[in-house]
Amino acid sequence: MNLLTKAARGTQDVLPADSYKWQFVQDIMLKEAELYGFKEIRTPAFEHTELFDRGVGDDTDIVQKEMYTFNDKAGRSLTLKPEGTVAAVRAVLEHGLLNDGIPLKLTYITPCYRYEKPQSGRYREFFQFGVETFGAASPAADAEIICLATTLFERLGISNLSLEINSIGCPECRQAYRGALKKFFEKHREKLCSTCTDRLEKNPMRIVDCKNLECQKIVEDAPNIIDFLCEDCEQHFKDVKNYLSESKIDYKINPKIVRGLDYYTRTVFEFVSSSDSNRSLVCGGGGRYDGLIEEIGGPATPAVGFGIGIERLILLMQSQGIEIPKPKRCDIFIATADKTAQTKALHLAKTLRESSFYAEIDIVERSLKTQLKYADKINAKFLLVLGEKEFSEKKAEMKNMASGEKFIINLDNDFLTKTKNILSD
Ligand code: ATP
Ligand code: MG
After folding, report:
1. In what order do the strands lie in the sheet with 382-386?
2. Whose CA is nearest to atom 20 of ligand 1?
3. Which of 103, 354, 359, 360 is least surrounded, with the fewest CB atoms within 10 Å of its CB?
4. Which atom of ligand 1 has the smallest separation from the CA of 283?
5. Which of 319, 340, 356 is the last residue of a domain?
């Protein structure tokens, strides 16, 4: 295999034929986030490994086997970020952003790196759109980001996505729940996968998350965390649901959505496509993580956020046959018969481009005839042909390529005004 002309496994190029879809989606994401008051943050592609592997018994897939970790030339251990939240939290703490007032609302589009088995919708480099609200414990903050996600999907034209929510309470509620879970799974110990038998001792909540079908079957009858919520968590969940109902956002309660890490609290949610046979291909999810900032060394700060995988989102849009507006078409091709004309053509194109028209000229020294074919090929809306005669008469013909209609343009001062009028019509 020629490695020089082969992208690394699990990575992909976004080619010109598709990049406009990415631009469209990302543009809608950032603009929608802006309407909700989220400001963009950009964090580096790599961070100190300790940020992701904090040695707090984190046994998630990411920390256990998916991280791209390497030593740099000075022997520091660095890791390509596998997700966006933790890097954002690091930046918030490093720059003291919480001192500027709360709530602090951040958004980003970031590449993420995970050493996974590549398949459709699962890559080693993928992009996540995320939002994070810091400093707001109120259920309104949870509802606000769910609302943002819902409107975003709507704006992208996506249908058949269902919102599933749950509450996983606080560390206190979970203590009783863990006990009950352990007791329940203990009865089914011999049927659990080997990873889950391990989890039984360390963190039985992670069994609820297991993708193994046998384990999932057992999980169906397992106790649910919502039956163990303390009064405050119960009220918080009730309020979130009220906000959603008032905002006419449909949701379903899925008591089986859990997150096995201590820093996650209360609201969790996922957007599931009803056409997905495979639940793991949900295109996004999020929730509250009131314990994370403290875990990273900051002051106890409530936080809530979500992340959406952009590749999966675009795949979903394609599977739903959603038409993404095609990229801008060439407004005008300026064809030239000789070198003198060509030199002037660049200047004319420059003036048009300064007025935001998409103009093209010949830059590969084609014959006039081939230039005309090329103008046709790129589907230019108008054609302007320039040669010696045109410059001596200070007049040229501009042709509407679709209708064949012709216009005479003066090449002197009112070139721009007249051309603009015709192009804008
Ligand atoms: P999965 O269960 O499919 O492995 P996850 O629970 O690891 O997903 P999160 O860590 O919650 O996913 O990441 C948020 C989002 O990022 C996912 O909902 C998905 O859209 C996207 N995502 C996660 N891993 C990948 C990947 N390897 N390739 C493409 N997108 C991904
Ligand atoms: Mg994963």
Report:
1. 359-361, 332-336, 382-386, 395-400, 406-410
2. 309
3. 354
4. 20
5. 319
Residue 225 maps to a domain: no
pLDDT, tens only, 404-424 = 999 999 988 788 899 999 999
Residue 364 located in a structural domain? yes
C-alpha 6/C-alpha 327 separation (Å) is 28
In a domain, 183, yes or no: no
CA of residue 398 to ligand 2 center, whole Å: 56
Question: 110 in ligand 1 pocket by Cβ < 6 Å?
Answer: no
269 lines ligand 1 (CB under 6 A): no
Please give the Cα distance from 290 to 26 (Å, whole number). Answer: 28
Q: How confident is the model over 190-210, as pLDDT tens digits?
A: 999 998 998 888 889 989 988
Distance from C-alpha of 408 to C-alpha of 125, rounded to nearest angstrom: 53
**Which domain CATH number covers 342?**
3.40.50.800
Choose among 12, 52, 29, 106: nearest CA to 311.
Answer: 12
Structure tokens at 177: 């729940």
- On the question of a cis peptide bond just before residue 103, with omega within 30 degrees of 0, the verdict is yes
Ligand found nearest the CA of 117: 1
Ligand nearest to the CA of 313: 1
What span, in angstroms and rounded, lies between the C-alpha atoms of 179 and 266? Answer: 18
Q: Is the pLDDT of residue 275 over 70?
A: no
Q: Is the pLDDT of residue 282 over 80?
A: no
Question: Could you list the residue range(s) of the whole structural domain that residue 388 is in?
Answer: 332-424
My answer on whether 241 and 374 are in the same domain is: no
